[in-house]
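Quick note —
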Amino acid sequence: MQLKDSWIELDNMRFNACHGVLPQERLTGGEFIVSIKARYDISRAMISDNVADTISYAEIFKIVNKEMLKPSCLLENIAGRIGESIFREVEGIGELKIKVSKVNPPMGAQCDGAAVSLYLINDKTPEKISLSQT
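Predicted structure written out below.
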């Protein structure tokens, strides 16, 4: 058997957070759903059955939760911060797919939510500008 690719995923994490452009959204908060898909080589963990050979789901959740506690106007900002923090705090992740959804956004339409999805590559070259530097 040959492992071709592997991802660690946390699907549909739910948060009540104070994000939004409107002042009322930032005051009362709303429901958000975050999904993370991280490319990571799990081949050692497949054989060892040892948590030290993989990524802790709890650690990724902790990072996402920390970023969700910081108020933002835009979903784009939230998703970007989550990606930057995961790459900075968890070694070995090559790529991330992040989806941040706002449930029942205040736009006068009936829909399940509005979302932003990012596909990020872990490029740690010094000439790249991070979100925290802009």
